[in-house]
Amino acid sequence: MRKGERQLNKSIKKVLLFCGVALVMIFTVSPLVWACIISLSPGKELASLARHWLPDSFTLMNYKQVLSLSDNAASFKNSLLNSLIVASVTTLFSLIFGSLGAYAFARLRFRLKDRLAVIFLITQMVPSIAIALPMYLIFNRIGLLDTKSALVLANLSFTLPFIIWMMRAFFESIPKELEESAFVDGLGRFGALLRIILPISAPGLFAIGVFAYLNTWNEFNTALVLTGSSQSKTMPVVINEFLGRFSVDYGLMAASGIIGLLPPVLLTLFFQRYLVDGMTAGAVKG
């Protein structure tokens, strides 16, 4: 009886675990599925009061309208390019300066090192909208307002402290003996960082780089305050412009959201294999 009860309990636990995972998956995927359905639905059916899950006929008209917008105030294609440039440049500089700063905190000795690291972490608790107005005044004073450079600098102030904090812990987990061996071979600090530490830290760099990229790609509040023309507006800002004062174009918003979702998803799927390979190689070298 005890053996049978144990098997029954295991089966019940498996069923409960499966149901819990299924509920989480439904909760996570259902908004995306619903956005896809809305993006493929004609405008008349979206405006109708009749309740239905699937439209009577699917259409790509919303996607055509989004990609053909040419108004200077709402050019979706330009906003995609702006988001790509800002996110890529921000991620690149965040990883470069963040790695150097994290290595300094992990290996060098200087006064107030731990307190400065805590201050970097505290900056992540400040909402971006709280410092949007000071940023606006600063960039307006130096002539960078409504430029992609202003967005890159603003996003660097958000992502850089987090990268320094996370990479510091990653560097501290690497044995110092590896660097000491490099010093014996004639390498300096920078050479050891470039040839020893960074290759071992590839998995951590990739994971934090993905975070920086996604955080910059989805950033809205700062971009809304600092941009005003199609030359600098990013994708979230342009999607918000489909929300009018007296009407909402749900089809265009859903279609633009699905299109804007594709680059980060494809980027993550493409580099997933390299992430696993990097983690394995790092474990072997460590």
Describe the structure.
The protein is an all-alpha fold and 286 residues long. The chain folds into two domains: 2-39; 69-285, MetI-like fold. The chain has helices at 2-39, 43-47, 61-68, 76-107, 113-122, 132-142, 148-172, 176-184, 189-200, 202-218, 221-226, 235-240, 250-285. It is flat, with a radius of gyration of 24 Å. The protein starts with a helix and ends with a helix.
Any key phrases for this structure?
286 residues; mainly alpha; MetI-like fold; 75% helix; 0% strand; flat; disordered C terminus
Short description:
The protein is mostly helical and 286 residues long. The chain has two domains: 2-39; 69-285, Orthogonal Bundle (MetI-like fold), CATH 1.10.3720.
What's the CATH topology label of the largest domain? MetI-like fold
Task: Report the principal-axis shape.
Answer: flat
Task: Please bin the fraction of helical residues.
Answer: over 70%
Helix and strand content put the structural class at mainly alpha
Membrane topology: Multi-pass membrane protein
InterPro entries: BP-dep_ABC_trans_perm, MetI-like, MetI-like_sf
Family: Belongs to the binding-protein-dependent transport system permease family.
Keywords: Cell membrane, Membrane, Transmembrane, Transmembrane helix, Transport
Which helices and strands, and how do they pair?
Blueprint: H1 2-39, H2 43-47, H3 61-68, H4 76-107, H5 113-122, H6 132-142, H7 148-172, H8 176-184, H9 189-200, H10 202-218, H11 221-226, H12 235-240, H13 250-285
Helix pairs in contact: 1-13, 3-13, 4-7, 4-10, 5-7, 7-10, 8-9, 10-13
